[in-house]
Design brief:
mainly beta, 7-stranded mixed β-sheet, 4-stranded antiparallel β-sheet, 11 strands, 58% strand, globular
């Protein structure tokens, strides 16, 4: 089992910055990929950024050049620096961690942290 706790959300004006953090605990040694997802009101949850255990990153087109994801494996933490925030970035942001299992992966989720960007 892996437990994930997010922090760093809040209210910011358009053009501002926020830094989200996710701390993993429990069976952290099996964590491979970690990622940030977000879900805006009335919309489906979407992938924002992901990072593998070797540091390979991927971003959604909507945040490329504005968001940067990083990870400290030894501390089982993941962060995301969000710059040049836009009102459309408003959403609940969730931390995700994947661990391999026989025949697939297990996904773990945090409870989310709310980011609100005012215009």
């Amino acid at each position: 089992q892996v437990q994930l706790v997010e922090s760093g959300g809040g209210l910011v004006q358009a053009g501002g910055s926020l830094r989200l953090s996710c701390v993993a605990s429990g069976n952290i040694f099996n964590i491979k990929t970690m990622a940030w997802y977000r879900q805006a009101a009335g919309k489906q949850r979407e992938l924002v950024a992901g990072i593998t255990s070797d540091g390979t990153t991927n971003y959604s087109d909507s945040v490329k050049g504005r968001f940067t994801v990083s990870r400290a494996n030894a501390k089982a933490t993941m962060s995301m620096q969000m710059n040049m925030l836009k009102p459309e970035d408003t959403a609940v942001y969730y931390c995700n961690a994947e661990t391999p299992t026989y025949g697939g992966v297990i996904n773990y989720w945090g409870k989310g942290t709310l980011v609100t960007v005012s215009s």
